[in-house]
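User: I'm putting together notes for a lab meeting next week and I want to include a structural view of one of the chains we've been expressing. I don't have a solved structure, so I'd like a prediction I can at least talk through. The sequence is below, exactly as it appears in our construct file.
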Amino acid sequence: MTTEGRGEHGHGGALLGERSELIFAIASGVTYAGGMTAKYLVSAPEWVAIALFAATYFFGGYFTIRTAIATVRRGRFEVDFLMLVAAVGAAMVGKWAEGSVLLFLFSLGHALEEYAMGRAQRSIEALAELAPDTALVRGPDGVVRAVEVGALAIGDVVVVLPNSRLAADGVVVDGVSSVDESSVTGESIPVEKAPIADAALASSTAVPETHRVFAGTMNGSGAMDVLVTSRAADSMLARVITMVREADTQKSPTQRFIDRFQLFYVPVVLAGVLGVLAFGVFAASEPFADSFYRAMVVLVAASPCALAIATPSAVLAGIARAAQAGVLAKGGGPLETLGRVRSMAFDKTGTLTWGQPKVTDIVAARPELRDELIATLFAVESYSDHPLAGAITRDLAQLVPAGAERTATSVNSVTGRGVTALVEGRATEVGNRTMFYELDPEGVPTDIIRIVDELHERGRTTMIVRHAGVYLGVVGVMDIPRAEAAPVVARLRELGIDDIVLISGDNQRVADAVAADMGLDAAHGGLLPEDKVTMIGKLGGRNGTAMVGDGVNDAPAMVNASVGIAMGASGSAVALETADIALMVDDIGRLPFAVDLSRRTARIIRQNLTFSLLIVAALVPATLIGLPIGPAVFIHEGSTLLVVANALRLLRFRRGAEHEGIDHEPRPTL
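Assistant: Thanks for the context. Below is the predicted structure for the 670-residue chain, given as structure tokens.
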């Protein structure tokens, strides 16, 4: 099927909306079925069947004609044009049914391609909605004014209110807060932000993460002043949108093959038909009617009916089977491509992990202090607005011993450090190592430092707890891996995925810890969206790379990979719209099934294409030496039925294999 000219004949503005072509294709199927019924099952007048077949010609050929006109105007004769000529030729020799089924099958496959393209385009619109339309700019006179984001200039100071999205890329020059950067970096835990010193701002070195912010991210409870460092058109979010748009215009390997094939196939067939007609009239001196009949027989024999349905039939069967297992494949290209990849890149947050921080470790300074540690920390975090407070109180609620409940008062947040409070009237501190180095100049106990270092090595975010001057212990928090992730990785290796890596916006230490737990080949942390795209380019070998992710920050990598795969329930709308394949339930355990099915689909497509071409290669010479149109149509349509039957085997593909041997229960956290 043609893939050229889509921009020229966009169907979104048609009378019935963006699904017009699909509706027309279905209508052509209905009228074709009616025509076959009238011709073979009921004693209807012949004109009834012909009228229904003519309606099939209209519905099935309407958009094909539009595409053919566009390509002919560019001086190209493609498969669309050949299908129309074959259908008209069939009608001219009285084979309306054969021409009708040709147009119906071709229009159905083309309609599905167009619908998938429309969904991909909407992903760009979803990306653009992340950034606000206006920003609050503090002028030289100190007055704050609202301006359009597009009017922001480098050097402007933008006021970021609590719990609002940032309007521009920049550095924090005043105020402290925590920022949820998951939409850009994939970082699962909000990042603390603090003002940058003037000397550091003037330096040519890279700005540390603690001072740098991005457009489209969500501010926490603090207000900040941000110095704009990039125009709206050059922001990280804008670059994400650009990368998605550029990648959406690239063609799949199958599309490129079809384009190359039709460049020589269509002109050769048309020239051959004209040659047969001319030879009969001028060289053989036979009546024009006989020569025209033979030319039409050759045209019907050479028309790629089985070839046209070879890929769509396998695609439809593969998509249907995938849907039964909760996997959405957006066309045949992704299914075929996934069957060839030998390397796979995973995002971390929400993909290999749950995307939510959990308490993973409770390490008391001494065993007898464990209950006091839990009760004290629960009391403080119950009144805290720290980004991790919700996770801590949720996980510790059932662990507080009966009768040991405590009450916290005077809870104060120390941004970038932790929380101070009074618990049962006595001073209590919960925070990171930096906080306690500042509070305790004489030094934090070596046992506490050892615990913190061990947890850091395992990728944990740590909180030291001290009550009434006594160090109670350390609590570790982490976005924990999914229980089924490691078995999935092992199963993918069995299926021939040789290189499996982690690419994440989280810091390298966390990425290394997750990769070691999963048995991955490598981990690359601290990556921004454009860095992930670069990494995908490095990973992609001859067979390409699949990218599995769930967030906005993964979208550019997904569309630049050979095939993008999105998590369903936990995935962002942008990731789902951008991805080629989506796991529609939050279950990464279905990924091996998708890979296995895609490989079988690719194999079926190759079988069908080879068989179809062999039939054409045998049938055309047979018609030249006298094979009449009856047997030619029988063989031609029979080959189409065999191709469809071969494709339908995918519907019985390993039923129940989508959950084979993979444990989906969550891993214990404590």
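A couple of points you could mention at the meeting. The two ends are 56 Å apart (CA to CA). Residues 162 and 221 are 5 Å apart (CA to CA).

User: Perfect, that's what I needed.
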